[in-house]
């Protein structure tokens, strides 16, 4: 049976149009309660966390290692925002991170959305593509040296632009050694959030179209074969005064079931939801309301739906 693992980002900080958005302070005990509740007995589950080398103290969620538990490890994202500095500082940081957190890592993501200059994307950094390749190679070498079972990959957003050179340049920069070092590539996508669906388009059809484009067009342009698994690194649907809680639950169920149904077709091994809790439930801006929980940790309908899907579909 094709392996399929779930995870979630439990922090309150996120990238928004005006930069990093910091929500209300986390309550670790409530986060731990929710993670314990969402993770089925005996099944693997992942906690997504982010670190920036230039601001390690600003990791989100803070002190993320406290959320590690039996069968629950980290999907740790190393963001890259450095400009005009030697890559040795970047690769040294990657090696130190592996040495520090290695036994608690399920996966290590090198850069965050290196092809995106939008909210939260590392594509704003001029040399990020070369940093991505150098980082993946350095991470794989260190993981193999230590004999650790950690998957190495990177994330990207979907591109339908034939003039976009991100994927072809990535393949040229990295070559076969880069492709051989990859254990997965993560897709971050938010259908019907930043670009509303057209009235005649079904959500499930839109999801299938994105998965097809990412696997059979984007990844292939970099020479990444179908044997390298895809992950869903970030996916969610925020609420607001015009985006009802019930619709959030419906959208997430449709997306997750569609991804799961397509897992064999596109070699998808993991789905991680963004995110656990609203940054601020009283703020009508959608960036503040991506959570399955309100900012007081009370559940929206989508929380129960996600919990049931994780229990049903975890393989």
From TrEMBL:
<dbReference type="InterPro" id="IPR017853">
    <property type="entry name" value="GH"/>
</dbReference>
<protein>
    <submittedName>
        <fullName>Uncharacterized protein</fullName>
    </submittedName>
</protein>
């Amino acid at each position: 049976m094709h392996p399929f693992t779930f995870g979630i980002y439990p922090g309150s900080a996120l990238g928004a149009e005006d930069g990093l958005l910091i929500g209300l302070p986390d309550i670790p005990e409530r986060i731990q309660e929710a993670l314990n509740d969402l993770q089925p007995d005996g099944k693997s589950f992942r906690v997504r966390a982010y670190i920036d080398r230039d601001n390690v103290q600003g990791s989100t969620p803070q002190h993320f290692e406290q959320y590690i538990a039996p069968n629950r490890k980290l999907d740790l994202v190393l963001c890259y925002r450095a400009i005009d500095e030697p890559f040795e500082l970047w690769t040294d940081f990657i090696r130190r991170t592996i040495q520090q957190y290695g036994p608690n890592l399920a996966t290590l993501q090198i850069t965050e959305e290196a092809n995106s200059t939008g909210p939260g994307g590392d594509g704003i950094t001029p040399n990020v593509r070369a940093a991505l390749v150098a980082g993946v190679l350095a991470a794989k070498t260190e993981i193999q040296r230590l004999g650790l079972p950690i998957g190495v990959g990177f994330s990207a957003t979907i591109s339908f632009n034939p003039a976009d050179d991100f994927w072809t340049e990535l393949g040229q920069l990295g070559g076969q050694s880069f492709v051989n070092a990859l254990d997965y590539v993560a897709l971050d996508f938010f259908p019907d959030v930043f670009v509303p669906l057209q009235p005649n388009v079904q959500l499930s059809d839109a999801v299938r179209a994105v998965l097809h484009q990412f696997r059979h067009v984007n990844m292939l342009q970099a020479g990444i074969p179908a044997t390298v698994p895809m992950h869903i690194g970030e996916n969610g649907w925020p609420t607001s005064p015009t985006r009802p809680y019930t619709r959030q639950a419906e959208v997430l169920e449709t997306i997750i079931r569609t991804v799961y149904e397509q897992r064999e077709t596109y070699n998808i091994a993991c789905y991680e939801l963004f995110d656990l809790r609203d940054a601020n439930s009283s703020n009508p801006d959608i960036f503040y309301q991506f959570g399955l929980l309100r900012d007081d940790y009370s559940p929206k309908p989508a929380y129960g739906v996600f919990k049931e899907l994780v229990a049903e579909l975890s393989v």
